[in-house]
UniProtKB/TrEMBL annotation:
A GO CC term assigned to this protein in UniProt: plasma membrane
Region (Disordered): 1-43
Keyword match Transmembrane helix: yes
Localization of this protein: Membrane
Transmembrane residue ranges: 53-82
Keywords on record: Membrane, Transmembrane, Transmembrane helix
Organism annotation: Miscanthus lutarioriparius
Protein name: Late embryogenesis abundant protein LEA-2 subgroup domain-containing protein
Taxonomy, superkingdom: Eukaryota
Length: 239
């Protein structure tokens, strides 16, 4: 009875052990496959996010490039249409009318007639001149200051600034005294004109341009004589 029972149980336990082991291996394999599937899903999501970010950057760069091209084309078209030119100052006439100088190195009386033109060569816009500050000098010494208030110059036009310069009692340095004595002996008196002005003009409705225009010239006057200056192209320049 016992042997029969053990024989019956023997095959049962022998079959049961492999079945249990096989079942364990099946469960372990199924768990590993789920883990790999999860990793693959995470990687796919990361790839989607990366590709989405790349496409967003590509679109952004494309939009920026188009904006730069459109802006450049617009500015170029406006430039071709308006052809902006910087307004400037030009000396059209100058004459040394009187010069009284003594041996003590003092300019007792200096009278100079000077005409400066404020020119606007733009064909489509008016220009404004402001902060006009000029000076007449002799060998580094300022003899007189010339100024003007804010004024406008119409397109393709000019406005004359006529100065009647009078300077008295200007003491020269030893170097200036020596230069003045030599100039009077040679009947050629050098006088310098220098200074700057602020220019403003518009280019359509897009921008208002502002530049400093600077002038620096040396005139050689026939004096004693008729006081006229030797021909010179004296106009201001903008950086």
């Amino acid at each position: 009875m016992s042997s029969t029972t053990e024989a019956a149980r023997g095959p049962h336990y022998a079959d049961a052990a492999p079945t249990a082991a096989g079942g364990g291996e099946a469960q372990h394999y199924g768990h590993g496959r789920k883990r790999r599937n999860g990793v693959q899903q995470i990687r796919q999501e990361e790839r989607r996010r990366s590709s989405g970010l790349v496409w967003a950057l590509v679109i952004l760069c494309t939009v920026l490039a188009i904006g730069v091209i459109v802006t450049g084309a617009t500015v170029f078209a406006v430039y071709l249409h308006y052809k902006p030119k910087t307004p400037y100052l030009l000396v059209s006439d100058s004459r040394l009318e009187r010069l009284v100088y003594d041996q003590s190195g003092t300019i007792r009386d200096l009278q100079l007639a000077l005409t400066v033109l404020a020119e606007n060569s733009n064909s489509k816009t008016d220009a404004t001149f402001s902060r006009v500050n000029l000076a007449v000098g002799f060998r580094g010494a300022e003899v007189a200051l010339l100024r003007a208030g804010t004024f406008a110059v119409p397109r393709r036009s000019f406005l004359p600034l006529r100065y009647q310069v009078v300077s008295v009692g200007r003491q020269l340095s030893p170097q200036g005294m020596e230069a003045m004595a030599g100039a009077l002996r040679e009947s050629v008196v050098p006088l310098d004109l220098f200074g700057k002005a602020r220019t403003t003009w518009k280019v359509g409705i897009f921008a208002s341009l502002q530049f400093w225009t600077r002038i620096s010239c040396r005139f050689l006057f026939n004096y004693p004589g008729n006081g006229t200056a030797m021909p010179i192209d004296c106009r201001s320049k903008s950086p």
